[in-house]
Amino acid sequence: MKFKTCILLILILGLLGCDADKVAEDVCEVCGNYYFRYIDKTSVSFCGWRREAIEELDGDMYVPEKIYNLNVVEIRNINKIKTPNPYYNEIKDGMKGVKSVVIPATVKRINSGGLTGNDLKLVTFKDASNWYKKAPSDSHWTPIDVSDPLVNVSKLKTAVTLQKIL
């Protein structure tokens, strides 16, 4: 009986030690000027910038290659911030004021809504080769040219997902 109680206690303590929010798909956390989401032990999704960063850089933004030494491999929109949520008011219009974005070569996927906003005018890809898109009406991937920063904005707004396929 004592053995079963010890095993049960160990299991309960193990479950309490897990950070369930860390792997929740729709929860972003804060790191300095960035919002991000953990994907696995080596990579994260970039979710956006804090309002102060956008204002300080006058809307000319760079997606980081790494956050907490983890590769930024995806860009996605902010759904919610890990609770408690002191940042809610500042993220409601997360892309407001962002005029240009540079995407590093580490990014392999951009999910719907990841880089949209009325002020966005330029999106530059550090590695513009082998990108594909999937539009809302498509069930397949279509090759896409992302070499023109001016045209990339409309491509991002009309695609469901952009993905680098090797």
Give a brief outline of the structure:
The chain is 24% helix and 31% strand. The protein contains five helices and 13 strands.
Structure description:
- The chain is of the alpha/beta class.
- The chain contains five helices and 13 strands.
- It has helices at residues 2-17, 20-23, 51-56, 88-91, 149-158; strands at residues 27-31, 34-38, 43-49, 60-62, 66-67, 70-75, 80-81, 100-103, 109-111, 122-125, 131-134, 142-144, 161-164.
- The protein starts with a helix and ends with a strand.
Name the features:
10-stranded mixed beta sheet, alpha/beta, 166 residues, single chain, 3-stranded parallel beta sheet
Mean pLDDT: 78
State the total count of DSSP E strands. 13
Strand content: 25-35%
Task: Report the helical percentage.
Answer: 10-25%
Termini separation comes to 56 Å
Sketch the topology as an H/E string, one letter per element. HHEEEHEEEEHEEEEEHE
List the helices and strands and how they pair.
Blueprint lengths: L1 H16 L2 H4 L3 E5 L2 E5 L4 E7 L1 H6 L3 E3 L3 E2 L2 E6 L4 E2 L6 H4 L8 E4 L5 E3 L10 E4 L5 E4 L7 E3 L4 H10 L2 E4 L2
Parallel strand pairs: 1-7, 3-6, 4-8, 6-9, 8-10
Antiparallel strand pairs: 1-2, 2-3, 5-6, 9-13, 11-12, 11-13
